[in-house]
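Here is a complete protein record:
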Amino acid sequence: MLQSRALVIALILLLSTTLPEVHSKSIFERDRRDWLVIPDAIAAYIYETVSKMSPKAGQFLADAAQTPVVVVTRNFLIRETTKISILAEQLMEKIKNLWYTKVLGY
């Protein structure tokens, strides 16, 4: 039982999600900056499946997802991926401008 709880906690940390935010966006309606939608959707699917089989285990998952360690980790990942995404967008703009000015001569 302890091993399965440890596995569930590790899975939650890996997917780094909080349940209230899981259903906020669809996978197909995401912004480029929102890279955590897919792990959130996977976590929601796992939660729903576990909850259907065992409501007690589902409640344990919900409680574990709200622990400070998971919330802090998820917030850190969101913050850092947002920074990386903004830098990637700026780089793409610079490459596009360079392509148009130097290569195509616009």
Summary: The two ends are 66 Å apart (CA to CA). Helices lie at 2-15, 19-22, 37-53, 55-65, 68-103.
